[in-house]
Amino acid sequence: MQIIKLNATDSTNNYLKQLILEHTLDDFSVVVANYQTNGRGQRGSSWMSDKGKNLTFSILKRNISIEANQQFLLNILVSLSIVKTLEGLNIPKLAIKWPNDILSDNHKISGILIENLIKNKQIEYTIIGIGLNVNQGIFEGLPNKVSSLKNITPLAIDKDELLTKIIDKLKMYFKLYSENGSEFLNSEYESYLFRKDKPSTFSIHDQSLFTGIIRGVSASGKLFVQMEDSTKEFDLKELKLLY
Ligand code: BTN
Questions:
Q1: Residue 93: φ, ψ to 5°
Q2: Beta carbons within 8 Å of 21's beta carbon, 6+ residues apart
Q3: Of 154, 164, 181, 243, which residue has the fewest beta carbons closer than 10 angstroms?
Q4: Model confidence over 135-158: pLDDT tens digits?
Q5: Mutation probe of ligand 1 site: the residue of 101, 107, 130 with most atoms within 8 A of C-beta
Q6: Could you tell me the pTM of the whole model?
């Protein structure tokens, strides 16, 4: 496994995307940066992280036998790898906020940005970008509740060790998937799903609000929300859970 350590780059996802065009890289190659000048989040947002304090890294995964229309499975594998690693450090009240924010006690501590190269309906390779707040104490000007491991656990966390643990878990989950398929992974993911079976408020297209109850996630990654008269499926682009 290759780990490329950078002091700074715009985004580890961008760096890895460029690198793979120029070099033959091993499966599970990793790029980790002390600082990103243009860290990217989901839905075109940015990922802010103080210099040197947190983990910001990207992993290359190739040879994935997942069809493009099942690509949500990658979100499941990655989310579970992070949650299980953090559980091993006794981080309390872990949850996955659909599609793949990792929360502890209602505060976001990690975000995931997965970018796939799709050819002939197959995922040729994927770049898994992970931001995990480790040693940053203060988060200013962010819209949601955000925290870090330092604010949650008295344990001193070694970032390099944590990175290795996450990669090992990810390898384990890919192996489990290839041996056993996806069914148990969906139910494990749903067992961590934030606000499952609880009335919650959502916004549609950042406009109108409604109340519904999260019941689960479809194979294509849509969220099942029970509303007054029926259960509807929502896509990532249309729905936001307010919390
Ligand atoms: C989100 O929650 O919106 C996803 C955040 C993903 C951030 C990580 S940090 C490493 C990698 N490089 C990026 O530019 N983004 C991801």
A1: 45, 55
A2: none
A3: 154
A4: 999 998 877 799 999 999 999 999
A5: 130
A6: 0.96
